[in-house]
Amino acid sequence: MIKVAKTAREKVAILMKEEGFDPSKDYVRVGVKSGGCSGLSYELKFDQHLEQDDQLFEDNEVRILVDKKSLLYLVGTTLEYAGGLNGKGFVFNNPNAQRTCGCGESFSL
Q1: Strands of the sheet with 106-108, listed across from one edge
Q2: Sequence-ordered alpha helix ranges (H) in the chain
Q3: Predicted local confidence at residue 82, as pLDDT
Q4: Which residues of 4-37 are buried (b: 16+ CB within 10 A; e: fewer)?
Q5: pTM (predicted TM-score)
């Protein structure tokens, strides 16, 4: 399961509306790909289509799609948002990551 913090939920809704998506029926697609300074990096984008190999989660009024391959790396992850002067934007709090890079955008197991 993927969880969404309140701060992330609020920012997701704002960004979805700005980009022409409907937070009540469209999705946030979360994935993992090879790359980044720690070996794996996170992907985050909006989507309107549920694919056959997608797992659908809903938390805090956010509908999240994760492909089966990425799900292995993301189980238990919480999507958070850190704003302000020192904020990083969206942050993945991933209990499976044994090492993360300084920017928080990549990780390794």
Answers
A1: 54-59, 62-67, 27-34, 40-47, 106-108, 99-100
A2: 6-18, 68-74
A3: 86
A4: bbebbbbbbbeebeeeebebeebbbbbbbeeebe
A5: 0.82
Residue 72, domain CATH: 2.60.300.12
> Splitting the chain (109 residues) into consecutive groups of 10 residues, what average pLDDT does each group show?
94 96 96 74 93 95 95 92 79 77 50
**Taking the CA atoms of the chain, what radius of gyration do you get in angstroms?**
13
What's the domain range around 72?
3-103
What are 35-50's pLDDT values in tens digits?
655 578 889 999 999 9
Q: Is residue 83 part of a domain?
A: yes
Tell me if 109 is assigned to some domain.
no
